[in-house]
Amino acid sequence: MRIALPFLVVALLAAGLPAAGAPAEQQTTAWHDGALQGDTAGLVSRSDIVQEGPAWRPYQAMPLGNGVLGAAVWAEKGYSAQLNRVDTFPDLKSAGRLVVPGLESLMRADDYSGRLALYDGQLVQRGGGMTARSYVRADADQFVLEVTGADPSKTQTADLKLWAGRTPSVSALGGVAALAETFHDAASGSITGAVAALTAHAQRVTATVVDPLTVRLTFRPNADGSYRLVVGVPSYRGGELRTAARKAVLETPSRHLDWWHAFWAKAAPMRITSSDGTGEYVENLRTLQLYTMAASMRGDVPSTHGAVVRMFSSAEDQADWAQDSYWHFNLREFVAANRGAGIAEFNAPYFTFYLDRAELMREWTRTHWTGGEGLCLPEFMRYDGTGDGCDNKQEPSWTRRILTSGPELVNNIWEQYRYTGDQALLSRSYPLMRDVARFYLSALTPGADGYLHLEHVNALEVQWDTTDPVPDLAAMRVVFPMVADLATSHGDTALAAQLREAVGKLPPFRTVQRGGEEVLAWSGTDEAAHNTQNPEMEALWPWGVFDASSTLMQATYRQRVYPQDKDWGMDSTWAARLGLSDEVKRLLLKGIADFQIYPNGFTVHRTGQEAARNHSFYNEWGGVLSTGLQEALVQSYDGVVRVAPAWPHDWDVSGSVQIEGGHRVSTEVHDGVPNVVGIQAGSHDTLKLQNPWPGQSIRVTDSHGHTLVTTAGSTVTFTVSPNTSYTVERTAVPLASFAYAPLTGQPATAVKTVGNRVLGITRSEPPLKSDLVSVQAPEKLDNLVKAQVGAPTYVDRSYTITALAPELNGQALIQGANDDSKATTPPDYLKLTLTRPATVYVAFDPRGETAWWPTWLSDYTRTTETVSTTDQNLILFKRDVPAGELSLGPNSGVVGKGNSTYVTFVVPR
User: Fold this and answer.
1) Cα 198 to Cα 203: distance, rounded to the nearest angstrom
2) Which residue of 225, 399, 584, 852 could cross-link 897, Cys pair, CB 3.0 to 4.6 Å?
3) What H or E segment, with its residue span, contains residue 309?
4) Cα separation, 458 vs 535, whole angstroms
5) Strand runs labelled E in 30-168
6) Is the full-model pTM beyond 0.85?
7) N- to C-terminal Cα distance for the chain?
8) Are the CB atoms for 102 and 86 separated by under 8 Å?
9) Chain centroid to CA 662: how far?
10) 208-252: per-residue pLDDT in tens?
């Protein structure tokens, strides 16, 4: 299928230099009939996540979702899918985990292949003659697993389960098995919860309750070897569980594929071509970010909390940060990225969350900020509208006196309106926008110098109790005139006059010397830093009060104190606005190296982390990366449209970026030079465009063939009308000189790598199947590993074996959990079942001898052998044991002490 692409796509154009004496090869363009043309499905599928082998470990899980219900799918126990809703406050606990043991033969097949197929919103896995297709319906809160090629004569099971600490209600009746749990929030009085109800389209389906945490379906595949599992996961606040479960699994005709295909037809995936593969890798991460937005941002609240996207968690109920609360600083990247990608509708949860709580924020301001009028938006706010911020009655702290979240929300509302024309949003938001401005007016203090000063506030989380922070001064310079114009249109002339007068009394930005250069200071005073943000750079983005022509801003960027050391750092966007194309590329690749530790494309918050040790998938970096790329390709923040102002010269690109007015600006760049610029107008407007070819004569024509203007000037200004397209071309190299070549793409076929980072799942050793030993507890250790050099020693660390005794090679290894290194209970920490006599070996950290080794170790004989790992050389002990049950104790015998946890080997006798 070939359709017009109103989205950002990047393609290498055939424009190489000809051999001496050979005719020049005609350059090509995909801009045709007023749009960028191409194969949507093929272009999106370039970014599919390829599984060369199964995702055996939870941190490799693939994300699926419909914006409210999310799933993380991996291969543990044959097939596992953890199901998570966006709204199970206060702790966002999971609805449960689906386990299908009968798919293990598919996962272990020699011909296994899998892919997260982004265009279809599905995970497709094949092997051993079977196919498993998983998805969360885009039009219903239901997770679906469709299997073909199963043995119709073999009975299968599917479990829904929870874990220790959970107290669900359970039900099994009429081929439907269900778990349900509600959660009462004592602070707000709210009740939330979820049902997870499972049914099967198969033969001989029966439902049973296995234990208080597990329900099971037993069934046989249909005669053709197919079966279909449906898990309905609606919101639940109590009531008769069986009725809720039956309703949860009722199905309507699916529009799943239609929804996803329509999304991609509108959205802006990115295609980049480069000689070293780095461009393609960045393209893939951006496409994944768009997928993540569509899969996670369709509810009434944002899906990320401190940048953690719990909807795709595979870590039971574990997560970083407070999952009942939001930091505005960790939401703003998505809002900006979505606008430029043409998917601004996925900002709706962000706006809804704050607008629905506006009255609560007004009351918060009244009771927590002495002298405050209007509305102060807390940087850190709980889902119930209470916050930790906008509070001058307590001592300053991390977020308590950050004020700029309010004007950022105001600016985002205004930008959303400018990009989309959403008058209803603007009208609903005016009272909030007005009251944020009123709050700032009430917080300003006249100084002896004639300026209005902002005192005893934070410069982000960096400086506490400071004066005139750069983010606030920049925010007021932008927001006050904006709200003044709106106030005038609403008849609030007195407020409009106050705001316009206040703008003229704001103090200038303070400068200091840093690194031998004059630069912007963080604020008007010199309080010490508490965090690693760069408050002075906020003047460039999000506020745009400086541009690339500012030598002060260029120096400030060079001398910033904290260059991109967290995933929130907008350094690539700052570099783009300063026209620093090499910096854009360097920073994006550095961020990938520093943060993208998960093979599914998700990231961590800071450097130096390892996937096996972390429990949270972050997606903040995806928003940072996407915003940086869009700003590098097209900018329009200051009223001038700039095309390829900071695009890396060794990445070739064809694509479109959405700008204010609802216009899409398309271009194709080869070796840093655009071929043509196309504009699909979204409204009546006057555009001012910087000449993409400085010093060359350019011409603007409309889709009717009329020439609007010809000039060799540095900028060109012209009016546009909606539903009309415009071409900006060099008069010496017009559009007609290019051959038409629509953009194409092929599905990804291999795992991608950049440096030490991987996107996709490489083939790895599967869990060991043993007829000798099985682990009964703890559950996190029940996947056995084949003992050999390179085998992982812990479930929560990345250490591996480097050498071991010959008698252990190839035997069953029971990994340790290093988070339990200081555990002194329970006495039966590790429970094993042995089918026949065996020798059990335990390998202990030598640092514990005479310090913390447990007393139960005296039942084992010390050997002269060691197990060498990338962590420690462990001392090996052994004991001959009969068949039956065996318990081993905790790692430590001394409270509060312990180093690396022991690992266990079982060898038949």
Assistant:
1) 15
2) 852
3) strand 308-309
4) 10
5) 31-32, 35-38, 49-51, 62-65, 69-74, 80-85, 96-99, 113-117, 122-127, 130-136, 142-148, 156-161
6) yes
7) 63
8) no
9) 25
10) 999 999 999 999 999 999 999 999 999 999 999 999 999 999 999
